[in-house]
Amino acid sequence: MRKLFLLITILSFSFSHSQITTRTIEVKNGQMDKFIEMAGKKTKKFNNQEGAARFFTYEILTGSDAGKIWRMRAASAENMDNWDSNSEEAQYWMKNVSPYISNGSVNGNYMWNYYGEMSHNVDSKDQNHVMALIYTYKSSGEQDFWRFRERVVSARKAMDPAPKGSMHSVVCSSGCNGNVALILFEYESFSDQQKYNQEMLPKMIEKYNEIYGNDAYEQDGDKVDMALIENGRGRMHLRFIPEASSD
User: What is the mean pLDDT of residues 183-206?
Assistant: First the structure.
């Protein structure tokens, strides 16, 4: 189960009409720079045009898969149906990028839906550091879990000034065991994240309680704890790699 939690990131563009898929790539020792260069050339060549699938590339910074690449694809259903392994795009990847992948190690194929109502999009310039909170919740706890996320969005939107980085919610639609959600926070760096936790998070909690009542944040958080399965909470960090991603 933990292996699939290599997931997601800077979603400051619209995914309302896209199907998101993700996979994890292990790069050969000493070949990361070359992989990024060649993956970038492939992506800029084939995945910047209107109507084409778009790719976004991240380095996993923490957890058992630290040092691997996490690659996200956003495409229409029609684009996915018409994928051809013999296409020029696929052959370009096999010839120019695959040689830098360790023993053909490309793992996982998970499908995700972007939950726009539970997300907060702001200016994401320079926000290339991502923290993903990973939750697996009981079906019976779905209402409590998402009520808390909805209220956090409302509290963030009511803050003045607003947080610099966006917060995104993504829900697994295929390939996961149970109800898996990712809540993704954007920062500039680990130091920027620490600053947010010290300065902005208390203000968000204050705004949450102002809107929903005294101690509402703590009370709703306790309900979320009850909504999760055993060991249903995780965390990981990623670094966005723009040079190997669609523009």
Answer: 95
Q: How many CB atoms lie within 10 A of CB 109?
A: 13
Give CA–CA dist 205/156, Å, rounded. Answer: 9
Taken in order 124, 40, 104, 173, the sign of the CA dihedral is positive
From 3.10.180.10, 3.40.1190.10, 3.30.70.100, 3.40.1350.10, which CATH number describes the 2-112+239-244 domain?
3.30.70.100
CATH of 116-238, one of 3.20.20.140, 3.30.2010.10, 3.30.70.100, 3.40.50.300: 3.30.70.100
- According to DSSP, the residues that pair with 111 across neighbouring strands are 21, 174
On the question of pLDDT at 204 being above 90, the answer is: yes
**Cα distance from N-terminal residue to C-terminal residue, the chain:** 32
Q: Tell me what the mean pLDDT of segment 62-85 comes to.
A: 87
